[in-house]
User: Fold this.
Amino acid sequence: MKNLLLFLFILPVFGWAQSNFEKGEKLFQAKKYNEAEPIFEGILKNNPSDIKALEYLGEIAGHQKMWIKGAAYFKKLKELRPNVADYFFKYGGCLAMRAVEVNRFKAFTMVGDMKEAFEKAIELNPKHVQARWALIEIYLQLPGILGGSESKAIAYSNELAQFSPVDGYLSRGRIEEYFKRYNLAEKNYKKAHEIGGSKVTFQKLYNLYLNKLKDPKKAKDLKQKFEE
Assistant:
């Protein structure tokens, strides 16, 4: 009898949580993040380890550019689910976005945690494209004395090329462009565009022609051909 009463008590609570969660999901999908947030916070209050609520709250924090808050949610997620690569990637991503906002000294103190998170994401998912892109940017942006390294950036670009040729050429083009070797950047961006033919590959090559090589004719011809 006692167990039956307990079951009858839990059932409506469970039903409320489910309907509330669905409401939060719909609000999130409608990009009504400020309305969805308190719903997921309420769910988390009753169950601090609710994976989906933590995920949504982490994503909402990202949309709101609340990077420290987002990092806290994804930190908890990676602790609860240490085998999920994306939780490590998103944790590192929140730290990286926060690093852009603070002074250089503070940003440098965050680099170790960022690198560790992205490297772990790759360890868990050897074909994680975004984590490699993030590490390429870190090694490009950091001064050499603090761990910046063109050779390490190239190594990650080469890894990308093994399973995503477009990302391989795009990332190598990015490296060449960063070091102002614009002709080599053009060569790689052209290869990426030949293979991918996407808006992303077009934009990279178009911007290079227009802003770096200062060749409006090439930019115009590329745009005309892409829009045919």
